[in-house]
Amino acid sequence: MSAKSVPDRIRVAMLTQRYIPFTGGAEKQLSAVLQRLPDLGIDATVITRRHDDSPPYSLVNGIPVHRIDVHGPRVIASLSYTAQALRLLRRFGPDVVHAHELLSPTTTAIAYKVMCGTAVAAKVLRGGSLGDIAVLEGSRIGRLRLSRLLQRVDAFSVISGEIDAELADHGVPSERRRFIPNGVDLARFHPVEPDRKIHIRAGLGLPDGPIAMFAGRLEREKRIDRLVALWPHVRSVIPAATLVVAGTGSLAHALAAARTEGIILAGAQADLCDWYAAADVFVLPSEAEGLSNAMLEALATGLPCVATKVGAAPELLSQGLGCLVDVDDDSGLVSALIATLQGLPSYSAQHARDVVVSNYSIEVTASRLAQLYRELVYVKKNRNTAIKFR
């Protein structure tokens, strides 16, 4: 980059609906990236909603986090979020605002851009029928709001081909769509030797026999209730098969009450490394996704995956890393699980890890984001200089 220089350190405000201690995939991903950005010359702060008794301000792993109290009906809550976030943004004075989700975070980022001219990046968290774009398209006001957001966001950090296609279909040119997928910590998630797997299983109290694993929020959009209902069909062919369900959510009590044989409800787990290492197959039957962090972690651990054809799963699993099924294909899901569990001896754990190493390391993700921020600042300082996003 030439012309007016970019400062050595760039200030970025991350706008998000939820953050740590909420431990969903998007929150854990953002936290992991934030811990690496300071070494790349990026000073970030997080502005989020306050969902529990966490303090209004705290340092989380060294990153400043501001939590906004938001109450009332959805429209009032959204306006309150924007008003309070704008005050915090004026105080912080970022060089770039990065909104995580196209709803209130991006609306707020655009409002700040109108006030101060600050560059805006936006991350669409998921695509498909439940995705950010679909939600906004559900009403006339939402469609107007979407049109303005898509025009005014300077760059989109895109995590899947599905989301990229949705943005392209809505007229967002390629130079404003940057492929920056989620990343995984390769030092934490890695394959283990057979003897080590046996030892880990014993420590977790898991049985012998093939183990499939689900990790994520226990919500209907993840279709974990359908997976649990279908598990007896898998057991009818592979009687020793066990399904481990790690996570919590609104379906937790119903799943526990079902008492389905061959299923272990592990609850919320702060660290999933050993659970992946103990498993043989990862399964994700979701109705909608962006780029599943749990799937990336499972692949980095060397597990084959069975997943529905949503989000980034088709891109990942098309490389011989598992099976894809349609969302409503219950028999296909059962067949894919049986085939994958029976085909374990021929599966290459190293191939799965190699794919993740090549494209989805957290260090690469952080580096690409830092480069995007620098380019956005460069463009702002050199309004008349054309720049081609790589």
From TrEMBL:
InterPro entries according to UniProt: Glyco_trans_4-like_N, Glycosyltransferase_grp1
One GO MF term attached to the UniProt entry: hexosyltransferase activity
CDD domains: GT4_PimA-like
Keyword Heme: no
Glycosyltransferase subfamily 4-like N-terminal domain location: 24-183
Family annotation (Pfam families): Glyco_trans_1_4, Glyco_trans_4_4
SUPFAM superfamilies named among the record's database cross-references: UDP-Glycosyltransferase/glycogen phosphorylase
Keywords: Plasmid
Protein's UniProt name: Glycosyltransferase family 4 protein
